[in-house]
Amino acid sequence: MEGERRASPERSSGLPARGADGESPGGGGPLLRSRGSSALLQVDVLDLDEDEDDLEVFSKDASLMDMNSFSPMMPTSPLSMINQVKFEDEPDLKDLFITVDEPESHVTTIETFITYRIITKTSRGEFDSSDFEVRRRYQDFLWLKGKLEEAHPTLIIPPLPEKFIVRGMVERFNDDFIETRRKALQKFLNRIADHPTLTFNEDFKIFLTVQAWELSSHKKQGPGLLSKMGQTVRAVALSMRGVKSRPQQFMEMNDFIEIFSQKINLIDKISQRIYKEERDYFDEMREYGPIHILWSASEDDLADTLSGVASCIDTCCKATEKRMSGLSEALLPVVHEYVLYSEILMGVMKRRDQIQAELDSKVEALTYKKADADLTGSSESLDCEEVVLEESRFEIYLTEEIGKLEDKVECANNALKADWERWKQNMQNDIKSAFADMAEENIHYYEQCLATWESFLTSQTDLHSEETSEDKP
Questions:
Q1: Per the database entry, which stretches of residues form a coiled coil (predicted)?
Q2: DSSP string, 148-170
Q3: Exposed, middle or buried: residue 428 (CB in 10 Å: 0-12, 13-18, 19+)?
Q4: CATH number belonging to domain 93-214
């Protein structure tokens, strides 16, 4: 947990300004307004009809920005302040720039995979140089994400794109798939670079700087297969055991995550369907222009009018194509990223609960030991004295372990609370900006199409007036 206590003055913890790669500023009002924990779930997060055909979801008064806020204030003992994670406001001085580009396909006798070039420019003193260029494949990104989760179990690690992004795609290495993944991988790395704690992780530095063969050797330095299996079995056992008394703030967080997951998944489905319907409309409208051109060739009296209609349709087709591009590049990736974030948040809460469950099990074991000692009483037998001594040593061991786990739980809780507030600000600004940009794009689209047809109708009206005046004696 040492990495979660680091806060370098060289790194700004201010949230990054929204850029072309989708990074978002931190700011704006809190996502939730505190009305007390009892009323938290009574709020209408997004008044979505369960019927997916009801597209009026986007016109509802309620929104993700209107949810109640979890109070960030939680009493902590003075001794716990050493473990408190604080993301203080500092000047936004970006000192790490990462670009993912130039995908290359590699074919071997065993597999086919894509590597991406990663260019890093930095002014940080802990780096040996200011410029680095390496190539990484998707499995390397998975390794990095796993190492970050291992080092910071209760920080919100940015999501990676799924192994297969485009549903129903036959060829997973076509250009659209590769470009979509490239953008998502770049956003993943930049999210980490802009995080006040993750950005200083040693494995992140190794990922950005060492060559492929060096990275392979670092991967082999992790725990062995048996150790990993043991950790997995232990985690499953703690998960099955559950947590007896989760703090109220984390109960509210868990309730929020469940609601958020339902709503953002529904928004993702609706957004995907809107895009599909827009694509069908564009394909159909694109056929009307050539039809009117052919029609004008057989109607001499209407040739100019039909050609004008074909021109208007062509203009509207171009505007529709531009709007579809904005939808697929601006709105859909943001919504889907937060679908993945909802899964990340569930994993974070599960890891926090596992840490607390481990503490609860040790406390319970110590309680049973003390109860057994009270029932057994004292005995003059030498053998009994040795047993009592051994049990006393075990109680001392449990007491020490409980002290360590209490510190671990407190550090994990403080890390999650601090990162939770940061994530909420990012989420609020990302979603707000994505929908605002899409709304502005729609307004521009309809204004352009309306102006096109109004201009055409005006020209036809003027032409009709001229013809009428010529016919008069």
A1: none
A2: HHHH-TTS-PPPPPPSS-STT-S
A3: buried
A4: 3.30.1520.10
Tokens of 469: 């005046």
Residues forming a β-bridge with 117: 101, 135
Q: Which residues contact 75 (CB under 8 A, 6 or more apart)?
A: none
Domain boundaries, the chain: 17-91+252-473, 93-214
Residue 204 tokens, joined: 């992140």
Torsion over CA of 226, 229, 233 and 236, rounded to 10 degrees?
Answer: 160
Residue 119 near residue 133, CB atoms below 8 Å = yes
Residue entry with tokens 């009002």: 29
Domain 17-91+252-473 CATH assignment equals 1.20.1270: yes
Q: Indicate the DSSP class of residue 442.
A: H
- Rounded Cα–Cα distance for residues 280 and 284 (Å): 6
Enter the DSSP assignment of 434: H
Give the Cα separation of 27 and 72 in Å (integer): 15
Interaxial angle between packed helices 382-471 and 303-326, expressed in degrees from 0 to 180 and rounded to the nearest 10: 160
pTM here is 0.70
CB contact at 8 A, 121 and 171: no
The C-alpha atoms of residue 258 and residue 319 are separated, in whole angstroms, by 38
The pair phi, psi for residue 401, each rounded to 5°, is: -65, -40
Classify residue 328 by its DSSP letter: I
For the chain, 473 residues long, give each residue's pLDDT as a single digit of tens.
444 444 444 444 443 444 444 444 444 443 333 334 433 334 344 444 444 444 444 344 444 444 443 433 444 443 333 344 444 444 457 889 999 999 988 888 888 889 999 999 999 888 988 999 999 999 999 999 999 999 999 999 999 988 764 444 445 667 888 888 999 999 999 999 999 999 999 999 999 999 988 888 888 776 554 455 555 555 555 555 566 777 888 999 999 999 999 999 999 999 999 999 999 999 999 899 899 889 888 888 888 889 999 999 999 999 999 999 888 888 999 999 999 999 999 999 999 998 888 888 888 777 777 776 655 554 444 456 666 666 677 778 778 888 888 888 899 999 999 999 999 999 999 999 999 999 999 999 999 999 999 999 988 886 666 656 655 55
**Which residues partner with 114 through β-bridges?**
105
Q: Which amino acid is at 379?
A: S
